Amino acid sequence: MTESNEPVAGAPSRPPRRTAYLLRIVFAAALVFTLIGLVEALFVGYDLATGAFAYVRSPDLGLGVRSWTIHHAMRPGYEQPTTHTNSFGLRSPEVAVPKPAGTYRILLLGDSFTFGFQAPDDEVFARRLEVKLRSVPEWSNTEVVNAGVLSYCPLLEFLQYRHQLHVLEADLVILNFDMSDVQDHLEYSRDLVRGADGRPLYVTEPSLKQNAGIFPELLSYRWLRQKINAAKRRYEARRDNIPFVRDVDRYIWALDGGPDMVDEARQTMEPIADLQRLLIHHDIPLVLATYPQPWQVSAQATPAGPIRDQYAIGQNTVHLNDRAFQKLGQFAADHGMAFVNATGAFRGAEDPAGLFLRTDFHFSARGNDLYAETLARYLIERGRK
Fold first, then answer.
1. How far apart are the C-alpha atoms of 379 and 17, rounded to whole Å?
2. Which residues face 104 on adjacent strands?
3. Is 361 exposed, middle or buried (0-12, 13-18, 19+ CB in 10 A)?
């Protein structure tokens, strides 16, 4: 006896198989879009409550802005209770262009230490240096311009001067070298475009080169794309054998027992020589200056928070390996540059741990003042040239 495919009279009819498949596809698509909507709603709600994704939603409306030529800069006219930038995007009072007659202008280049991270405007070492110099009759007409930018290195500082800051007509430029500059150089140089002579031309922030989509991007998608791009960069760094892609490697070249990093240090310092060539053309002297990190001064410096563990420094540990400072000193000597190393002043200070913030590796008010004092003493003893 065989089964019949004929419909039984009175039985409910079934939709054709093709229609059933179509309904399943529509249901699955509706489910996917519903899940995406729920995830996006969670992202938006969390962002409204905390502002945690402001950098994703509006990447150029905070303090930092992306750049086609210098990777990133600071937004002009930024205002917070303790932090302000001028029309050049610099953390300084407004700078007159052209330079007023009789003004001796010192330009400070550097990263977050020069910028004065977590310090009020009047406590950053640029302002303290200006006060100290003006107290000396010979330097009473001095103006100090703070051009420090978060996460900079000599490569970006050279480009910053080449593209923007040359118009300030500085009489003296001080480049402040930080122990993290080697890592930053290795990261930014991956997007560096050089001229036919090998000189750096520009570094474009990678996200500026991404094509805009047809539809408005979801906040969750933007966040996910940033994470994927970061993971891709880390993979490329490992593939190309580029070190310092992890926080634990950030200061490894300056730690006791760390690798020598001869080539990486040399590449990081090369833009300083490029800057010197620009300045010599306009008869502007350059001073190369540096300072220690907390763990190069005291085992008790910056003890709170995750900083020491995050960067594999070690709790209650001091690293007295001065190889990095020696490399800088030798580089300066080889190129005929003036060199200031504030490490001795910091190690010899009373309560050296108090020169840094407890929960962050940047200078405290005392640290900013001591570094300013070190620079001022050197400049006064050296005299104007």
1. 87
2. 142
3. buried
